[in-house]
């Protein structure tokens, strides 16, 4: 600590302003090590002319301060808790569902059904596509809070895709995984998937006759791809941070394919259009605020790449524990833009979930196998 200065947490600042007398006390009892927030302020400590009087007053006020600090500490804890709640708000309902199983009726199960519907595990009964036969996607017959057979089946498929114990019950590990931040692209598209549940080892051999089913590689089910290797991209709204991150992310894919990527100014003419959006943003797939879905992008040759503006994005080399690494998510979304789907390989960039504070920018063998298979005539 510098002489003549004190360091205080930003949260304590309002308290200090409210009482200059307290400032003396804080100066005498706050230590550098008590600082827990990155944002710190320095205040000048006042001179002490009457030590004995001051010591007595200090002692009295120290007791008062300690009493006053208790609610403040509790408030700080509450703020941290609220923060976590805000970050996971889109999927907070899942916390009430730990331990539930078939036959249960629990408030929040209908939201779970909506979650599973969003990512391709359930089809609503009123959906026109529900008439199609599918082994990976179960039909959702109602929007009630009931744990029926169809929900159990969808949970089983989810657990299979994410390498969990296939119990059909909402155990803690399953809920924990569902609560992680993730990509908004469904795991199962039109009833087919290249994740575990779509592979032949899972008794799905009867699907071999379907030309759209991809059994080994994590590419989009209809194998849509770009017919050219020189692609252009443009930003709809962004600063320089996204520009450099995007350039680095593209380079990772250029290194393992024949693709080249060039930035252009006019989004109208660009093959890939990149932008940040909040909530509803015109493609019928609204973002959900902090936590939950981070980004989504579209298979070739649509070329749209949208990021949730409300996430705590990091463009640093090492993101903070409550920050999401923009480059990691961008490399993942680039995979979709080139035609890859989700992979069950937890190390792969194309695995659907990623934690805050995690850096996952390097393409793995699984990612490279997928892109090589899809574009083998080009590479
Ligand atoms: Zn994805
Ligand atoms: Zn969008």
Automatic annotation (TrEMBL):
One of its GO terms (biological process) is extracellular matrix organization. A motif (Cysteine switch) lies at residues 181-214. The active site is at residue 333. InterPro entries: M10A_MMP (IPR033739), MetalloPept_cat_dom_sf (IPR024079), Pept_M10_metallopeptidase (IPR001818), Pept_M10A (IPR021190), Pept_M10A_Zn_BS (IPR021158), Peptidase_Metallo (IPR006026), Peptidoglycan-bd-like (IPR002477), PGBD-like_sf (IPR036365). Keywords: Calcium, Hydrolase, Membrane, Metal-binding, Metalloprotease, Protease, Signal, Transmembrane, Transmembrane helix, Zinc, Zymogen. Ca(2+) 1 binds at residue 311. This is Peptidase metallopeptidase domain-containing protein. It comes from Aristolochia fimbriata.
């Amino acid at each position: 600590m510098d002489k003549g200065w004190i360091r205080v947490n930003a949260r304590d600042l309002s308290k200090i302003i409210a009482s200059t007398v307290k400032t003396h006390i804080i100066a005498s009892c706050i230590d550098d090590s008590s600082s827990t927030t990155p944002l710190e302020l320095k205040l000048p400590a006042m001179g002490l002319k009457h030590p004995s009087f001051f010591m007595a007053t200090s002692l009295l006020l120290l007791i008062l301060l300690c009493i006053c600090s208790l609610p403040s500490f509790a408030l700080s804890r509450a703020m941290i808790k609220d923060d976590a709640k805000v970050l996971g708000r889109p999927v907070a309902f899942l916390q009430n569902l730990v331990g539930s199983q078939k036959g249960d009726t629990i408030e929040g199960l209908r939201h779970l059904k909506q979650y599973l519907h969003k990512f391709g595990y359930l089809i609503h009964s009123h959906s026109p596509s529900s008439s199609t036969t599918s082994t990976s996607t179960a039909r959702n017959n109602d929007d009630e809070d009931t744990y029926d057979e169809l929900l159990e089946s969808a949970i089983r498929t989810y657990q299979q895709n994410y390498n969990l114990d296939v119990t059909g019950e909402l155990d803690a590990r399953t809920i924990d995984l569902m609560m992680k931040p993730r990509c908004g692209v469904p795991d199962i598209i039109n009833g087919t998937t290249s994740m575990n549940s779509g592979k032949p080892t899972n008794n799905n051999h009867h699907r071999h006759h379907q030309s759209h089913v991809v059994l080994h590689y994590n590419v989009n089910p209809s194998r849509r791809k770009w017919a050219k290797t020189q692609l252009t991209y443009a930003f709809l709204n962004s600063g320089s941070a996204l520009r450099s991150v995007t350039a680095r992310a593209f380079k990772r894919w250029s290194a393992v394919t024949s693709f080249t990527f060039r930035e252009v100014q006019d989004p109208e003419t660009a093959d890939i259009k990149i932008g940040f959006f909040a909530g509803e943003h015109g493609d019928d797939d609204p973002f959900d605020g902090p936590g939950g879905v981070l980004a989504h992008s579209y298979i070739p040759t649509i070329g749209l790449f949208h990021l949730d503006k409300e996430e705590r994005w990091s463009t640093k080399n090492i993101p903070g524990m409550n920050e999401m690494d923009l480059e990691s998510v961008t490399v993942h979304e680039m995979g979709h833009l080139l035609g890859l789907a989700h992979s069950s390989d937890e190390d792969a960039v194309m695995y659907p979930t990623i934690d805050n504070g995690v850096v996952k920018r390097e393409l793995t063998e699984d990612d490279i196998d997928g892109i090589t298979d899809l574009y083998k005539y080009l590479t």
